[in-house]
Prior knowledge:
Layout: E1 2-6, E2 10-15, E3 24-30, H1 44-50, E4 55-65, E5 68-70, E6 75-79, E7 82-83, E8 88-93, E9 102-109, E10 124-126, E11 132-138, E12 143-144, E13 160-161, E14 166-169, E15 177-182, E16 191-193, E17 201-204, E18 211-216, E19 220-227, E20 233-241
Parallel strand pairs: 14-20
Antiparallel strand pairs: 1-2, 2-6, 3-4, 4-11, 5-10, 7-12, 8-9, 8-11, 13-15, 15-18, 16-19, 17-18, 19-20
Amino acid sequence: MILPPVAGGLSGSVVLPAASIGATVTLTLSASPPSGVPALQSDRRLVRTLGSTPTGIAYFTAQSSPTVSFGTSLGAMIATTTQVGGSEYLVLFDPSNATAGWNAIAGPGSPSSGIPAGGNVAAVTFQQGVTYDLALVSTQSALTVPTPTPSPSPTPAPVAVNVSALQLQGVGAAYAQTVTVTQSGYNGLFTLGGTSCNGIAAADTSTSLKDFTITPVAVGMCSYTFTGGGGVQTTLPVSVTSLTIGGQ
């Protein structure tokens, strides 16, 4: 018997085993415990039967027309918005025998698969004209499933060059120098930028991912920009001067 969703995020079904006669059984699902019946946690007999204090997951009322008996236990499968642990049981309160309190009629089952029908925990009879209360309980407290908090992205480390400024004292390949760019935690390719160096210096990145050979082309000043992981950048000033020998 499929039960429509109710407030509280509950939905699911109750499985009725073979009955003694044809009958109409009306079941109503609720997220709130019924009024006028003992609290589950205060029913000492039930606590002893289950071995721990039960926590209510879902509640039902049941009515039958005419009187009907089930020779084996009912089954239940309820989906909730909470994470449930422990074992699940279906318990019954019969208002015509209130002194008996709550009684386990099915279980144990697991939160992932519910309580299977057809067990031999207890036969059940629904008398015509009587409204019965049932509860799906767990032997562990229901835990609210927390909304996952996204982990903050780590802040990328700064990009560093092994020199703070590059001074090239002459023009040509003989005066080229190699600089090394590093960034802690990053092993990828560094991107080289710096159009201001066009015609003043030329950078060769063919040696490795982090070594840049810079060759002076003409006298002047410019700068290169190195971009690493996370888009972090650093700038290297470059100056090219001519070498004068013997005062000429």
